[in-house]
């Protein structure tokens, strides 16, 4: 959730049945521990998103905390709207995270599709968010299958 105060959204999303809640590290520097605890207390899996311009070290304390996030989302576009071009230089962040945290779920979001999924999967991403490449495809199921297969192979 790219919102100013993610704490305001935890309870309503938990009550609505959400299984996970991912917040942006940039909006939660002062209250991430409380936020993670609240997410978990509402039965959801906590994750943290990292924007392209934010140093990777910003998420280390959240992954290494006593009550850690369970997933890191590396944004491969600037958040805000769909259809943007994939930023391959963000794969360095994915590789660093995978090396440092071999068992961590690492998600990538933004501009992903058949032409770059292998790059993301081989860098260490094991969760993929794909919007335009799936919903804009004439055969969405084929695109989903290709994306899934690439991640499973890696």
Automatic annotation (TrEMBL):
<dbReference type="GO" id="GO:0006091">
    <property type="term" value="P:generation of precursor metabolites and energy"/>
</dbReference>
<dbReference type="GO" id="GO:0046872">
    <property type="term" value="F:metal ion binding"/>
</dbReference>
<dbReference type="InterPro" id="IPR013785">
    <property type="entry name" value="Aldolase_TIM"/>
</dbReference>
<dbReference type="InterPro" id="IPR011060">
    <property type="entry name" value="RibuloseP-bd_barrel"/>
</dbReference>
<comment type="function">
    <text>Catalyzes the reversible epimerization of D-ribulose 5-phosphate to D-xylulose 5-phosphate.</text>
</comment>
<dbReference type="GO" id="GO:0046496">
    <property type="term" value="P:nicotinamide nucleotide metabolic process"/>
</dbReference>
<dbReference type="GO" id="GO:1901135">
    <property type="term" value="P:carbohydrate derivative metabolic process"/>
</dbReference>
<dbReference type="GO" id="GO:0005975">
    <property type="term" value="P:carbohydrate metabolic process"/>
</dbReference>
<keyword id="KW-0479">Metal-binding</keyword>
<keyword id="KW-0119">Carbohydrate metabolism</keyword>
<comment type="similarity">
    <text>Belongs to the ribulose-phosphate 3-epimerase family.</text>
</comment>
<keyword id="KW-0408">Iron</keyword>
<dbReference type="GO" id="GO:0004750">
    <property type="term" value="F:D-ribulose-phosphate 3-epimerase activity"/>
</dbReference>
<comment type="subunit">
    <text>Homodimer.</text>
</comment>
<keyword id="KW-0862">Zinc</keyword>
<keyword id="KW-0413">Isomerase</keyword>
<protein>
    <recommendedName>
        <fullName>ribulose-phosphate 3-epimerase</fullName>
        <ecNumber>5.1.3.1</ecNumber>
    </recommendedName>
</protein>
<dbReference type="InterPro" id="IPR000056">
    <property type="entry name" value="Ribul_P_3_epim-like"/>
</dbReference>
<keyword id="KW-0464">Manganese</keyword>
<dbReference type="GO" id="GO:0006163">
    <property type="term" value="P:purine nucleotide metabolic process"/>
</dbReference>
<dbReference type="Pfam" id="PF00834">
    <property type="entry name" value="Ribul_P_3_epim"/>
</dbReference>
